[in-house]
Amino acid sequence: MKALIYNTFGGPEVLEYREITDPVLGPNEVLVRMKAIGLNFADVYRRKGNYHLEGQPPYVLGYEGAGIIEQLGSDVIGIQVGDRIAFADVPFANAELVAVPVDKAIPLPETISFKEASSVLLQGLTAHYLTKDSYAIQRDDVVLVHAAAGGVGQILIQIAKLLGGQVIGLTSSKEKALVAKEAGADHVFLYSEDWTTAVLDATNASGVDVVYESVGSTLMNSFEVTRIGGTVVFYGMAGGDPVLIDPRMLMDTSKTLTGGDLWNVLTSHEQRVNRSSELFRWMKEGQVRVAEPTTFALKDGQEAHRYLESRKSTGKILLIPSDRD
After folding, report:
1. C-alpha torsion angle, residues 238, 175, 281, 101 (rounded to 10)
2. Looking at the predicted structure, is the pLDDT value of residue 322 above 70?
3. What is the pLDDT of residues 193-244, one digit of tens each?
4. Tally of CB atoms within 10 A around 54
5. Gap between the Cα atoms of 254 and 256, Å rounded
6. Which residue of 45, 119, 123, 291 lies most exposed, with the fewest beta carbons within 10 A?
7. What is the value of pTM for the model shown?
8. Residue pair 57/49 in contact by the 8 Å Cβ criterion
9. CB atoms closer than 10 angstroms to residue 311
10. In the chain, what are the domains?
C-alpha cells in the first residue's frame, strides 16, 4: 500500500509518499480502505518530535478518518465487509489501508459522507464532551469560546446555541470573526482589542458562566471575565503555557478550573458510538454544520502540512488517498 511516511523529525520536507507493507490484521481488527483522513495539529507536533507517537521509523501519522471495511479479523462479529466506518483514535491513518480495532470502529450512517466524518469526529467529539461533561451547558448560560473560528470553536458555538446558550467568540482577525458569526456566535471580539472589557460590557459586568479556554496564555484573562461561581474549562494551550493558578483565588471567587481531554472520555465502544450518534443526528437535522473542508491528495502531504501550519485555514484539512478501485 501507499502511505505518507517519515524517518526523521523535522519540517514538512521530511514527509515522503511511498510504498510500505500492508498492515497485519489482528483477530479483533478490521482492515479499512481509507476514503478520507483528517489532518490535525497533533500530526504536526508528532512530525516535529514533540508529541506522543506510536511505532518505529518509518513513522506514519494520522489518527482520524473514514473508509470501507475490506477484511475482518478472525474474531470479529457484528460488522461486515463493505460496511462504512469512521474513527477518531486509531494510529497510522495516513495510508491507503488501516487496521482498526473493532471497538474503535464507529458505524457511519449513509447520511454522513466520508469527508464529513473525517472533518467532524475529532473536533466534534471534543466539543461534545466539553459541553456535556466538562461543563453541562444550560439554557441561558453565557458561554465564551476561545479560537472561535477553529474546528473545535465553530462546533462549540453551534452545540452551545442548540443547548440554549448565548455565545461570545474570540478570534484573531476580522475574517475569522465572520466565520464565528456564521457559526452562530452572538458577539465576536478580537484578541487585538481590549477583549476582557468588551466581554464584561457584553454581560453587563456580571461575567460569563463558562469559558472554553484553548489558548493557555490567556488563562488569567479568562478568569477575569468569568462570573463569581463560574467555570473555566482548560483544554488546550495553542498560544503558550498557562500561568500557575493560586487555589486561594479559586476559593475567594468560588470559581472552578477544570481540565478536559478527549482520550479520558472515549474509553469504550459504547462511548464512541453514543457520542458520535448524537453528533451525526445533529448534523442530519442541520443543527450542527460542518464547513467544507480543504482537501489534498495523500501524496501531497507536505503541501497540506505547510497549509495547516500557515494558519490560513478556518475549516478542516483532509488528505484523500488515491482510489484504486
Report:
1. -40
2. yes
3. 999 999 999 999 999 999 999 999 999 999 999 999 999 999 988 888 899 9
4. 11
5. 7
6. 45
7. 0.90
8. no
9. 13
10. 2-120+266-320 (3.90.180.10), 139-260 (3.40.50.720)
